[in-house]
Fold this protein.
Amino acid sequence: MSLVKKLADRWTVMTGGLFTFVLGLDAPVALEATPATILATYIINELALATDPGDGAAWPMYVSSMPDGSDVENDCGCCYDTTGVKQFRLMNGIHQEKFGIQLRIRSVAYTDGFAKAESIATSLDAVNRASVVYEGETYTLVSVNRQGPVTPLGVEREGTERRDLFTVNFLVKMLRVA
């Protein structure tokens, strides 16, 4: 490993993943899936705090849309892509950015929904260069930075069930491994 690579890795560790550097003149490899899809896959497969919606198990985690209906669990979650942050541009023209993701939890029991949102958020707070595989592509979650506490949104207006909603917003630095 080159000295420059070691220094770049050390800087990433020292800043808790806040700053990472791409070495060389090539731009980072483009993502093949949305950031919300990649993070939802990590929550399902690596953290095991939610399930794949196709499994029919408790706490399914959806992406971009939280469905409703008699065949959908009342207690579920969804990851949405939101506005991210362009951090800076390196001298070689490469832009460093973090993707915005909102986690939304829906639950019949207020305390269960809050606990699920807090559990996922706390687990994501600890992410430091974690790997996740989605459709054969490997991604590195460099860091997941929570932007605030779990926020209760109140009771959902649609549907016949009384279900509480909670959100947590994140800025996520992720890279596709070439």
User: Anything to note?
Assistant: The helical segments are 3-14, 35-45, 110-125. The chain has one domain: 28-176.
